[in-house]
Amino acid sequence: MKESVKNWLSTHNIQYILHQHPAVFTVPEAKIHCGHIEGTHCKNLFLKNKKTGQFYLVTIPHDKRLDLNEFRRMVNALKLRFAGSDDLLKVLGITPGAVSPIGLINDFENKTIFIIDNDVWNAEKICCHPNINTETMQIPRSDFQKLINATGNVLEIKKLPYSEPLQEE
Known about the structure:
By secondary structure, the chain is an alpha/beta fold. The protein has helices at 3-11, 27-34, 68-74, 85-92, 118-121, 141-151, and strands spanning 17-20, 40-49, 55-61, 65-66, 80-82, 112-117, 125-128, 135-140, 154-158, 162-163. The chain has one domain (3-161): YbaK protein. The strands form two sheets. Strands 1, 2, 3, 5, 6, 7, 8 and 9 form an eight-stranded mixed sheet that branches. Strands 4-10 form a two-stranded antiparallel sheet. Strand 7 and strand 8 form a beta hairpin.
């Protein structure tokens, strides 16, 4: 974990347990290397409305597949697409494969709307990367909620629409 992330978490009194593991880029890889970590594991999508430029970070349970068409209608953003790696680095300070709610601590201009599935928001423990995909943070619900609120980003807790998962997920 970068020192800047550690310092931010310490400054905001966020409690967590850090687990190290080989780099993971997919849900199947994460299940192999992180499946033993207790808690609700997250999958994160960084999206951009091509029409307005609005960014969205969407956090869902790792075993779900967001129905993007329904989601577009839900947020009234029909031109919603995956944001590019340049936007990801510029806005959240992270690279593909390490997308995480923790990236919001780098969104100093609060350009991102954070949308989280209510099942993740209400989980006892949330597991996500600390902006690097070789580590997983296990965060108690109250500390995770405190962390998100401390970023100052717009927060929307929703029952998100899902489609059937892909075979490899």
